Amino acid sequence: MAEQAVAIDGNVSLPALLARNAKKFGTSPAYREKEFGVWQTWTWLETAEEIRAMALGFLSLGMEKGDYVAIIGRNRPALYWSIVAVQSVGAIPVPLYQDAVADEMAHVLDNCGAKFVVVGDQEQVDKVLEVQDRVQDIAHMVYLDPRGLRKYDHSRLHSMQDIQAEGRAAHERFEVDLASRIDALTYDDTCIMMYTSGTTGRPKGVVLSNRNVVETSKNTSEFDHLRSTDDTLAYLPMAWAGDFVFSIGQAYWTGFCVNCPESADTMMTDLREIGPTYYFAPPRVFETQLTNVMIRMEDAGPFKQWLFRVFMDHAKRVGPDILDGNPVGFWDRLKYKLGEFLIYGPLKNTLGFSRVRVGYTAGEAIGPEIFDFYRSIGISLKQLYGQTEACVFVTQQPDGEVRPDTVGIPCPGVELRISDDGEVFYRSPGVFVEYFKNPESTADTKDADGWVATGDAGFIEADTGHLRIIDRAKDVGKLHDGRMFAPKYVENKLKFYPNILEAVVFGSDREFCTAFINIDLTAVGNWAERNNIAYASYQELAGHPEVYRMIREHVEEVNVSVAADEMLSGCQIHRFLILHKELDADDGELTRTRKVRRRFVEEKFGDLLTALYDGSSEQYTETEVTYEDGRKGKITATLEICDAAVQGGERMAAE
Do 25 and 141 fall into the same domain? Predict the structure, then answer.
């Protein structure tokens, strides 16, 4: 059996896989990091040595088996190493979102009872110190970057460099203990604890075992034929389960190289320099990149715009077939080759996608138009569906069976079923052990037979076996007249437009659908500049009459598209407004993974929602906001409420 084979090979944990990789891929690159504009590389042998020194240093600090260790910071090799070093001593790593506000951080640190904290820099040190009065268990904190920390009290604050130096110096005292702790790790020991994004409430600790991580990494790596020569870019939050599986789980199973950008500001430049062969991004990243492309084309001359349109229309027609190896006529192939030389190749190079062999998007549904755009220019972009509770992977799209309207077939080892009310359930080797200190939620989510309720509504296509997700089960409802309401379907269509950053659609149990819109400041600001429209702030631009006119055109185009779907035609938007602020995770409106907290938004902007339905033409509102330094403030605005034409009905009111 597969699990016995893994156990016989000794690969029952990530430290065991590290030892295998040091022997098998010793001189091959394992991690790269760009610092001060220069890429530094560590081989698997060097990575194993760095992790060993860390683990010995942690033993010298008194880290015990079963201790919980919080890890906070941006994507850096040393923080990834610390995760495996913590596992090596039998402790349990708990990554936290580096941009979490103090209250969120305090909840996780207190909930897991963290005794040690590993952080990236002064900012994270300050955050932990700020909440220490609410978190009593922390004994030691270890930091990577010493800048700004010289005058801090170092009685319980330590440099990672010093910890590793102490580990190397004291190796004779601790190496026998370290070896015995690694050998004692079992397949069913806890590998890591990841916290959920908290879309509907407080984040919950998801306990994942070595079995969950190793089996899932093995199965999914083999599904996509990942190789030790692949490169990936690690830029998504380390506290997100997807980053852990891509940048540690699959990397350790396969032996490929993980590349860490210098900063969020240089990410796109670093992406182009690395040219990853294996790449993942949530829909928002692909949407932003497409927005930037469209902005650049709007600034181009008439001939370049015409050339772009001609070849992109051709790519849309034949590109996906060429990518999947389907028959395409000689002249169409020839024209596509010319387009590759003139348009598609330079565009992929600009995006950093020239070498992408396997690309994925997940986290939420991606707009079909956005998905088709990338595939049409030859990028092998696919969709997967997963959850933290599944160790990420539930379904994947096989090569040659890629479609924008499904999320693929069950991953190897995964079983699917659909309940009578349409909810998706799965069972797999990756199914989490439990929610930490939360047996009630565990029992609500996972039954005695290991079936997990996803909370998503969907169905399995009888002829293909592909899973189609409709929406979150709790969000799918009915309009007052009984027609189906699925907000995410409409929101994704709206977000295809570069000018729309976010949309929240309402309509369950109501007469008609309405929407809150967030404009994309970059895209709309560029448009305003070209049209000589002056503005001093996001709020002023969002309320400009010409911006409302433009957004209304987008909404009405979406209504035409939605009306063509017989099942969801009732989801056309009758009225909308443009919010005076961007939805923000610091204000509780988004999760740290950038998902809209729909119920929270509905309650927070209740006055605006009421105005959308009571026939008002405008509404005054006051909104509390959180500034970057943590201070609270209040902004006020009077928002216009706009009517939109729907198919099969009249505009709600005269303009």
Answer: yes
